[in-house]
C-alpha cells in the first residue's frame, strides 16, 4: 500500500509560480512511476507529468512542456511539480498518483494508476 499526500496548492496570479509536493509512504517506490494529474470543473481528469522514481525518465503533456518540471527527493520520498508561467487554464484540482510501470513513463494513464492522493487545489487568476 502506497500513501500519497499532496500539498502546496493555492491561489496565484497568471504568470506566477507554485510548487506542489507529494509525500509518499508505505512501500518502496523503486518500481513505481510517480505523476500528477489534474481535473478542472466539468472536465475529465487528465495527465500532467510523470517520472520513474528510480530513473530519469520524465514525460509531460504538451500544454505544460517548458513550464512545469517534475522532480523528486529520495531522502524525503517526495515528488514535486514546479509550475511556472501559470495560466488561468491551469486551474484545477491536482492529484498525485503512483503506478507500477515497467516500460516508458509515457504509458502512465488514468487506467494504470494504482494509488491516488487526495488532491490539492490550484487556482490561477487572470
> Helix-strand pattern, N to C?
EEEEEEEEEEE
Number of separate helices? 0
Q: Give me the oligomer status.
A: single chain
Query: How does the helix and strand content classify structurally?
Result: mainly beta
| Percentage of residues in DSSP E strands | over 45%
Helix content: under 10%
Shape: globular
What Rg do the Cα atoms give?
13 Å
Q: How many β-strand stretches? A: 11
Overall mean pLDDT: 95
* Cα distance spanning the termini: 40 Å
Question: Low-confidence stretches at least 5 residues in length (pLDDT < 50)?
Answer: none
Largest sheet: 7 strands, mixed
Structure, briefly:
The chain is mainly beta and 126 residues long. It is built from no helices and 11 strands.
Q: How would you describe this structure to a colleague?
A:
With 126 residues, the protein is an all-beta fold. The chain has no helices and eleven strands. Strands 2, 4, 5, 6, 9, 10 and 11 form a seven-stranded mixed beta sheet that branches. It has a four-stranded antiparallel beta sheet with strand order 1-3-8-7, with no helix packed on it. Strand 7 (68-73) and strand 8 (78-83) form a beta hairpin. The mean pLDDT is 95.
Amino acid at each position: 500500500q502506497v500513501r500519497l499526500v499532496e500539498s502546496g496548492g493555492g491561489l496565484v496570479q497568471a504568470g506566477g509560480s507554485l510548487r506542489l509536493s507529494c509525500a509518499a509512504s508505505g512501500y518502496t517506490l523503486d518500481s513505481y512511476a510517480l505523476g500528477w494529474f489534474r481535473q478542472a470543473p466539468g472536465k475529465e481528469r487528465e495527465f500532467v507529468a510523470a517520472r520513474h522514481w528510480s530513473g530519469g525518465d520524465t514525460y509531460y503533456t504538451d500544454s505544460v512542456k517548458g513550464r512545469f518540471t517534475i522532480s523528486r527527493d529520495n531522502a524525503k520520498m517526495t515528488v514535486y511539480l514546479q509550475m511556472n508561467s501559470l495560466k488561468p487554464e491551469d486551474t484545477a484540482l491536482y492529484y498525485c498518483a503512483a503506478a507500477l510501470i515497467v516500460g516508458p513513463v509515457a504509458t502512465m494513464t488514468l487506467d494504470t494508476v494504482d494509488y491516488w492522493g487526495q488532491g490539492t487545489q490550484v487556482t490561477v487568476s487572470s
